[in-house]
Design a protein that fits this description.
With about 240 residues, the protein is of the alpha/beta class. The protein folds into 2 domains: about 20-110; about 120-230, Nucleotidyltransferase, domain 5 (2-Layer Sandwich), CATH 3.30.420. It is built from 9 helices and 5 strands, in the order ααααααβββαβαβα.
Length: about 240
């Protein structure tokens, strides 16, 4: 296997990222709750906001989020003006995350919260970097299936956050999910990067038509294209 080492200067985040808890809670209130009204004791927006706070504190698993909230029950009850003096059981958190949410709607809300402020200034060409990267999540095998959930994310390197992500279906791959994902991202002035599987004519045209540029890898899986490029850059 041939290995290539690239020296890359990663941008640093000089200004701190400030999260407005009120804005987060307000955006979560716009999400539809798929639970039946009867028996609902904790509003969906409240649970999601608490989960965000737990996540920011380093607690990602369901059991850890439940424990974190339970240890701070008094403060959270007062903060959200809840009628019940306690926090939900772990089973409630599991049921809410599994049944109450429309994932695509949640992703849109999160993307709007993390998006940069809208300005009239048009980004200069090549001033933004958007990386396509896929990850398979541990412990995410849906009921009745045998494979774990795989997400494809668009990561904006200069800001240090994920601007959009999409689940890759079991009957497709990242190649099929990439066009839908990039359609959600403002690409004016951006350079989109990705590994060799994203070196596709349709995706490249989509990026250019959206006002961006692309940087793809070409490997032996596309021998004709690789041979053409080698010929093009070969010294006379």
């Amino acid at each position: 296997m041939n290995r290539t080492i690239l020296a890359v200067d990663m941008p640093t985040q000089e200004a701190p990222i400030v999260l407005d808890l009120g804005a987060i809670y307000h955006q979560f209130q716009t999400l539809a709750d798929r639970r039946k009204r009867r028996g609902v004791r904790y509003p969906l927006a409240v649970l999601l906001t608490i989960a965000v706070l737990a996540k920011l504190s380093g607690y990602s698993q369901i059991a850890a989020i439940a424990d974190w909230a339970r240890a701070r029950a008094d403060a959270l009850v007062e903060l959200f003006d809840l009628k019940r003096p306690s926090m939900p059981h772990e089973a409630t958190w599991t049921r809410v995350f599994a049944q109450a949410l429309v994932i695509t709607a949640l992703e849109q809300v999160v993307a709007s919260l993390s998006a940069a402020p809208v300005t009239a200034e048009v980004p200069a060409r090549g001033s933004l970097i958007v990386n396509l990267d896929g990850k398979t999540l541990r412990g995410t095998i849906p009921l009745g299936q045998t494979s774990r959930m795989h997400l494809l994310a668009a990561y904006q390197a200069d800001q240090g956050w994920v601007v959009a992500q999409a689940a890759v279906g079991s009957k497709t791959n990242e190649i099929g999910a990439a066009p839908t994902l990039l359609a959600q991202v403002e690409l004016t002035g951006a350079v989109v990067t990705g590994d060799a599987m994203h070196t596709q004519r349709q995706l490249s045209s989509q990026v250019v038509e959206a006002g961006g540029d692309y940087f793809w890898w070409v490997k032996q899986n596309q021998p004709t294209l690789l041979a053409d490029l080698e010929l093009l850059f070969e010294e006379e």
